[in-house]
Structure formats: structure tokens, C-alpha cells
Amino acid sequence: MSGQGDIAVVGLGVMGANLALNLADNGYQVVVFNRTGSVTEEFIAGEAQELGIIPAYTIDEMIGMLARPRVVLIMVTAGKPVDLVIESLFEHLEESDIIIDGGNSLHTDTERRQTLVEDRGLHYLGMGVSGGEEGARHGPSIMPGGSPGAWQHLEPMLKAIAAKAPDGKPCAEWIGTGGAGHFVKMVHNGIEYGDMQVIAEAYDLMRRGMGMTPGEMAKIFAQWNQGRLRSYLIEISSEILATDLEGVPIVDLILDAAGQKGTGKWTVMSSMELGQPTTLVGEAVYARIVSSDPEARRRAAAIFDSPLGSMGATGSDEVETALFASKIISYAQGFRLMLAASETFGWDLDLGTIASIWRAGCIIRADFLEDITAAYRRNQDLPDMIEDEFFAAALEKSEPSWRRVVSGAVDAGIPVPAYSSALAYFDAMRSERLPANLIQAQRDFFGAHTFERVDMPRGEYFHHDW
Question: Which residues pair with 366 in a beta bridge?
Fold first, then answer.
């Protein structure tokens, strides 16, 4: 089989192993390599053997099994491990060969690596892949960016292994040059943090504020999954809540300390650097941080009496409305961030296309993304999703229930940082005047930072001798 491989996969963790199987399913000759040879042996002994996947036990052996241009997909932990693999490939690859990083790398690292790789006459793709184990195996959402020449060669392959949207279109499209693909995947993950938080808040409101059992909530989530909230995360939330372990709801046995791997934090940091208000994702990240120290929360709970009470007349239908409205805000903020990045880095991102490739395969896949795709098809220059006629009408209709849920949660002592942050953003964006004028006066008072005036053209600055 020497020289016949279509692609090599380096790294046989959950994502790498399943992408290799997916590629082989779609008729591609796959070569695999893992730094630990026993991992390769174990992988080959399973389904991979039936699919004709070829093991390699050194980088040199792996490269020798590939047809030209040789394509190597790196699926290792983001950061220094990616750099080490790239360095190990340099002495073996030749002009026009292609390196793909399919992990969750920071987009600035991808920019740096692309320059390094292209300087050697090679092509480089920083490729976002979403869908978890199931998606990698049967069809993920794929977000490639980097060297355009690499996309031209790999487009048929990537579209073959990608998920297919309801209209049959593959969930894989060219995102842009440089780190565009990994930036979009980062924002996807940030929105995922937001989605999980707004769902968790609904669970908390119904559990503590309405006294519902996990079984009762499972049925409500299942009902929601038949309507406008139909999505992968709502679906699995229903299944989770319906699952028992020896007669006890398993969700009640899980420690309330959420982990994170960094992409949510990166999204918030990027939003600050680009001057965009990605407040809901920020609250989702901080909510995980607060949850991660249950001992500190127990100490505080022993000191302070809880005002915890009932949500009163508020029902699950109104919680669903607050969840939906907050979800709109979360996505609107995420798409604002991508628009700002596109303008700053010259990526020319097509936001409608990005929404369309998230419709299947990825973790945030949802019917809701059809509406977002349609919004950006109506106006590709839409500056903020909440200005689209469909979403504007949805927010206006949701507002009364949304406010009742947030105020009811405050009265009951149940934290809803995502719902309240989303509502604050909605209120701020429709306020023609905010109290920032006082902040500017304070800044000028103590630091002579100057201010603009409402009766003068923008861009003219003044200082007052306070």
C-alpha cells in the first residue's frame, strides 16, 4: 500500500480516531499514527481493521505511505503539542503537501503556524471541527481556514465526511484565510457555553423555584424539543433528566462543579480585544468558575440566610420564553463578534454560510439556525441580529414573560446570570441614552481624558476645567 494513502491522521484520541473511521467510511485510504504505539495497535485491532486503515509507527513510515500531495491531519491537544508535531513533519514533507490542525487551537497560533508552514512551500489549514464523538464519527460541522490552495484540494474530502443539513448541503465551507476557521470554531464554542447556561438556568428555575422532579422536567424539555427550541442540547437535556441510576435521578448525583477547556474564555477575551459586548458568554464562563468551588459556596450558604422561595405564578412556558429570548441575544452577540473580527482581520466572513454549516453535526445544531441563516441571506451586512425583522418581533413578543422570569428569579434568590445579562443587553441596545456621559465626566474630572459633546460633531473632543 506504499504511497497510496489519501490522508494521515496523527493523534488517536476520541476525535482523531473517529474522524479516521469517518474518512475510511467515505472511501478514503487512511493512515494513522499515534505517539504511543500501543494506542495505534489497540485502534487497529478494532473497527479500523475492517475498514482497511493502515497503521504507522514512525513519522517517516507514515509519510512514506501517502500519495502526493501528502495530507496530514493533526488531532492532538492544542498548544505546544501541535507545534511539536509540525516540527517533526518538516523534514519529511515537500512543496505543496498539506498540514491540517483539526484541534481547538487559538486563532493567533494558527496565523503564526500558517506563515511558518507556507514559508517552507507547504499548505496549512486551521480547521474547526464540531460535533463531539458522534459528529466526528458520522458527520461533524467543519470550519476550515488558512491556505486557499489546501481547501481547493480538500473540499471534496471534507464535504464528504461532513454532516448534511436538512436540505442535503454539507456542513463544511471555506471560512477564510489565516486563523478564520479556528476563530469561528472558538465563537461556536462560546455560543455553546451560552446555550448550556441558559438551559441550566431553566432547569434550576423549574427544580428549585417550581419544585419539579427531574422526570417532570424531562417531559417538559421533550415538549420544548418539538417546538422553536428544537436542538441537540435540548434533546440530550431531556434524556439526561429522564435517566436514573439505581432509582435515583443521575443528575442529582452529579457534583455541581462545571469544567471548561478554554474556548469560552478565549471568546470573552477576543470580544474585549475587539470591543464587542459578548456579555452572555462572559456570564456563562463566570458561572462555571463560580460553580467550580462548591466548598466556598457551602461556607457562604452557612453564613447567609437564603431568600429562596417559589417562582409564584411563573410557569414553565414563561421559562421557555426567557430561554428563547436569551438564546437570541447569545447568538446575536456571537455573530457581532465574528463580524468585528472579519472587518479587523480582513477575513470577509460570510455569516449566513457560517450559520448554515452549524445546522447539523455540531453541538449547537438547532432548527433556530435556519432562522439565522435566513436573516443573513436577507441582509448580509446585518450589523446586529436583533435588528432583523424576525428576531426583533420575537424579542418584543418575549419581553413580558422574560421580565417576569428574571424578576421572579431575583425574588426567589435563584441566580439567572445569563437571562438577566441578556435582558440588560436588550435594554441597553434600545436605549438612545445611557449613563456613560457621567462616566466620561468622571474620567475627564480626575484624568483630563476629554469627552465628546451632543451638540458638536463626533470626533471633536473637549476638556472642562472642573
Answer: 231
C-alpha 58/C-alpha 130 separation (Å) is 28
In which residue are the cell numbers 465563537 written?
187
CB 308 within 8 A of CB 413: yes
Residue 353 to residues 52, 246, 405, Cα–Cα distance (Å) = 35, 46, 34
Q: Catalytic one among 80, 87, 134, 192?
A: 192
- Active-site entry in 111, 185, 318, 320: 185
Main-chain phi, psi angles of 240, to 5 degrees: -60, -50
Question: Residue 57 and residue 34: Cα distance in Å, rounded?
Answer: 7
Q: pLDDT at residue 2 above 90?
A: no
> Where residue 1 falls among pLDDT bands split at 50, 70, 90?
very low
What does the pLDDT look like over 231-284, one tens digit per residue?
999 999 999 999 999 999 999 999 999 998 889 999 999 999 999 999 999 999
Clarify whether 159 is annotated catalytic: no
Helices (H), 225-350: 232-241, 250-253, 263-273, 279-291, 294-303, 316-345
Q: Is residue 261 annotated as part of the catalytic site, yes or no?
A: no
Comparing CA positions, the residue from 98, 70, 57 lying closest to residue 4 is 70
66: its cell numbers: 501517502
